[in-house]
Amino acid sequence: MFNPLVENVESLKDEELQKRITDLNKRYVTASRFPDQSLLLQVQQMLTMYTQEQQRRYRKQMEQQKKKETDQDLGDLINVE
What we know:
Elements: H1 14-31, H2 37-77
Helix pairs in contact: 1-2
């Protein structure tokens, strides 16, 4: 998702990203109490955007870790003399 009114989420640090997600969750709960659902939709869209970025980072870290582990495993199996 892309929202032109929100700064680039890729430039945020992990701690800032988590802080914004927590803040948006609080705002989502508050917005759900109001009868106007347009505010709720906007908060939900922003929350989705931030959580998708967090998931993307997590997947990237897992892929790097998996690649690192497989590289180490192959290094022990190949005997170059």
